[in-house]
What does this fold into?
Amino acid sequence: MFSASFSHQLVRSLIMSSPDPIIVFDADWQILALNNAAETTLSCSADAVVGHVYTDAAPHTEIAAILSACHSGTSWRTNDKVYQPQLYNVGEESLIGWVAVLRDITQIDKLNRSQNEFIRLVSHDLRSPLTSIRGFASMLSAAGALNEKQTQFVEKVLSGIAQMTALIENIQDAGRFDPETGFYEMKRTPCDVGMLVRRIIADHLVPAEKQELTLTVNLVEPLPIINADNLMLERAITNLIDNAIKFTPNGGLITVHVMVQGGALVIGVEDTGLGIDAEDQKLLFQRHVRLVRKEHQRKAKGSGLGLFIVRSVAQRHQGEAWVVSESGKGSTFYFSIPLSNANLIAQR
Ligand code: ADP
It folds into this structure.
């Protein structure tokens, strides 16, 4: 269609005129081009860096941070702008280079922040009236003077309140634990994850029994005591067990595994439930993603925040979250806490 020299010039003009900063590398990470927007953002001239492997170029810490944001799917910030960097490979048959494109999301980020702040205030204010409604409804049922129908109604009120409280808790956690915009300050204490898991399981035995599910634990000893945020771990594990209960049909088995693997403490919740199609697995840990392919998934209540919270908890501890699943056979959701740096109890 186009001659090689026309295509070359066209691509060059597109890159140079883009308002988004763009950095072009060859397959060995030597910088081939930097457009004007990238020069301004990185405060360096193209002449000074082109021809150098990026680790030898002056703004190497910034470029390394941009590439690491590309891999983790997080944003990269300057003093006054927020970018979403994306890395594309160049070459059809064999790899000949890379292009990093930094999309300016400063406005979206501002909107997200004000939306988060609004949600934080509203969800906080919703909690107090809910607590008093739950208190009065419990007093009604404890008073004992209700007939069968009235008792049923009070139970429905209490279960509705429990659902609303869980939803508000998830909305709050998703906002405050968010590794990019969350304002939650981690409180690390020595944490025995095996004991924590046993306690959370004890709290879930009744809902599991209601669905004829067996809920067990598999602690692969010896397990280290880690220096982690207990509340965050509890919220992550609780969300995974809640999901396993929600998405496993009656008669199934749920096992919570805790083990050391690849230099990290790994927590896995395995179920014999619906499973997840391979193409859906990548999306799950994003905010507000809910699957609707299967009847059971469509009917289950939820906000699509649980797995986002699990990933946020893992990331705030420098770990990650992932799933291994086969549709129709079950899933195991994992998250890891690396046994390094701040996660280690200080050695005397
Ligand atoms: P929620 O459960 O509130 O919808 P989550 O972020 O916890 O939000 O989960 C997102 C989606 O992932 C769920 O809506 C469901 O479709 C799917 N999912 C989560 N856990 C499981 C599981 N154990 N088995 C099958 N599907 C699951």
